Amino acid sequence: MARTTSWWKARRVKHRDAVVLCVLSSAFLLSAGFFSELVPEMSFPEIYEKFLAPVADRPALLLLYTILAVLAFTTAFGVVFVLLGGWYFIRGRVPRGRFFVGFGIGLTSLSLLSRLARATLEQGSPLAFLLPLATSLTGVGILLGVAAHTTMGQYALLLKRHARAAWRRWRRARRAPRRTSRT
After folding, report:
1. How far apart are CA 31 and CA 96, in angstroms?
2. Phi-psi bin for 4: left (phi > 0), alpha (psi -120 to 50), beta?
3. At what angle are helices 16-35 and 79-91 packed, to 10 degrees?
4. pTM summary value
């Protein structure tokens, strides 16, 4: 019969590096949706006045419209999936977490692909869209999401395990001379 893990070990956060990268990636992607100068469709006050103010007196509808406004006016629709992938990394379910992080970054990239195609058609070159994107919050968010996805690959997990074992061996070797017995 398999031994159950203690509540303390079950509560311990696993894969902290990937979780931090997922949270940072989703924060950059979400903030890029509100503060992006790449495609200024509507500012936040305009979105509020046009879509949220008419339903401000009905809380359920206001919540629904707020969620829809976040999804409709951000370049980062995949933010929710990147955060969900980070949650699965915390739980230790690496394959499922990698799927959701990859799915979220993929959705974000697809939403940007349509804008890239539009910039190419209008200006003849995609550089007018790609150069500002590389230095924007969206570009940084996509890079951090790809880094989180890569960090949780099979080979990366193996390297993390070996590095952790080497660190423990080094720490044990440094602690050993300090423990001298007094005889």
Report:
1. 25
2. beta
3. 170
4. 0.57
CB-CB contact of 75 with 111 (8 Å): yes
Q: Cα dist. 156→32, 74, 103, 133, 161 in Å?
A: 29, 31, 20, 28, 9
Residue labelled with tokens 């933010």: 79
Residue 169 CB burial class (10 angstroms; 0-12, 13-18, ≥19): exposed
Q: What is the pLDDT along the chain (183 residues), one digit of tens a residue?
A: 666 766 556 556 567 777 888 888 888 877 776 666 544 566 677 778 888 899 999 999 898 888 777 666 665 567 888 888 888 888 878 888 888 888 888 887 777 777 777 777 777 777 877 888 777 777 788 788 888 877 777 767 777 778 888 888 888 887 766 555 565
CA distance 79 to 144: 12
Q: What is the DSSP letter of 183?
A: -
C-alpha–C-alpha distance, residues 78 and 167, integer Å: 36
| Amino acid (1-letter code) at residue 121 | L
Q: Is 149 helix (H, G, I), strand (E, B) or coil?
A: helix
CA neighbor of 33 nearest in space, from 145, 147, 117, 142 = 142
